[in-house]
Design brief:
three-stranded antiparallel β-sheet, Cyclin-like_sf, two-stranded antiparallel sheet, 13 helices, elongated, Cyclin A, domain 1, 336 residues, TFIIB, 63% helix, 5 strands, transcription regulation, transcription, Transcription factor TFIIB cyclin-like domain-containing protein
Length: 336
């Protein structure tokens, strides 16, 4: 009669290292007899009990069950956070793999620390999928502290070898979500101009050492103003979860950068900070030409000013042309 499992009643039993183990439920059976076939000889052997093997198998089964339960809890928690942030299910799967990689390295902590880990993994996964989610937005919607979340993001990036991507695709995706939030209908043009403004800000060192969300918010305000949308900076700051004063500072810096490249044109005297948004389409369309030409035009302007200064010193400030004979005679008498 084949051996039978006392737990589930299954007859599917195999011997592993001298211990009978049920293949259906994984229970280790004790003190069972088995027949070993050697040629034409049948020999009945008594299987002895090995406490170490039994404990080891029970521990392996217990760890497997705990890992599966923990994975289900993490999947449910990440699904809840994705619902809050309105992210796709693919980002949830990528964040779950990051969580498993971090937990396999001995991650421990309180419930709040596990929540920070889930938010950090979602932020890294969303940046790799070009969703354009900012750290401040995740901290504000998930109700966690931004500084603690930033430290957890550094920890996840250091252990996984990843880095948060701040590409133009991320900026365009973030501006698309801002357009939907603020009911901006011309999303294509606004997002295209904003994407170019972010690239211009990177070339002009406006993004260096600064938080990415402030620059994207400033670029969105300028591009929307170019399409004659009057958007309050407080609404953009509320969506991003950042301060409105810093966004206004980034707007001023980007305007000064554009003005520095356009004020040396023949009609550059017509442009100032207040109306730079009117000339924004021209600046963005010809930026590849304006950027290298601006130093040359500035050099020509300086040389022209120097020549004018020399002419004033030679002929005097009151004369518009060459001096007359009386003026030359007075100058010679003065020198004598």
């Amino acid at each position: 009669m084949p051996p039978t499992c006392s737990e589930c009643g299954s007859t599917d039993v195999e011997v592993q290292r001298g211990v009978h183990t049920c293949c259906a439920c994984g229970a280790a059976l004790e003190n069972l007899g088995c027949e070993l076939l050697r040629g034409n000889l049948h020999k009945k052997l008594e299987v002895k009990r090995h406490d170490h093997h039994l404990m080891r198998l029970k521990q392996i089964n217990r760890n497997a069950v705990l890992m599966q339960v923990r994975q289900q809890k993490w999947r449910a928690a990440l699904g809840k956070l994705c619902g809050i942030l309105r992210l796709q299910p693919a980002i949830q799967d990528a964040a779950l793999r990051l969580v498993q990689h971090t937990c396999s390295r001995g991650f421990r902590g309180s419930k709040e620390r596990h929540k920070l880990l889930g938010c950090a993994c979602l932020l890294v996964a969303a940046s790799k999928h070009n969703i354009g989610v900012t750290l401040e937005e995740v901290a504000n919607r998930c109700e966690v502290q931004a500084n603690l979340l930033q430290k957890m993001v550094w920890k996840v990036c250091a252990q996984s070898g990843l880095r948060i991507s701040r590409t133009e695709e991320n900026a365009e995706a973030l501006m698309m979500r801002m357009c939907n939030y603020l009911n901006v209908t011309q999303t294509g043009g606004v997002c295209a101009y904003g994407r170019k403004l972010v690239a211009v800000a990177q070339q002009g060192w406006v993004c260096t050492g600064r938080r990415w969300s402030f620059v994207v918010g400033a670029a969105f305000l300028l591009s929307a103003q170019a399409f004659f949308y009057l958007i309050d900076v407080n609404d953009v700051a509320r969506f991003l979860g950042v301060g409105a004063r810093t966004i206004e500072t980034r707007v001023k810096e980007i305007k000064e950068l554009l003005l520095s490249a356009m004020q040396h044109l023949p009609w550059g005297h017509m442009i100032d900070i207040s109306n730079i948004h009117v000339y924004l389409p021209f600046a963005l369309e010809h930026w590849d030409v304006l950027l290298p030409v601006a130093p040359v035009l500035r050099k020509q302007q300086i040389e022209k000013q120097q020549r004018r200064q020399k002419a004033l010193e030679l002929f005097g400030p009151g004369s518009l042309g060459p001096p007359s004979s009386d003026q030359l005679r007075d100058q010679s008498e003065t020198k004598q």
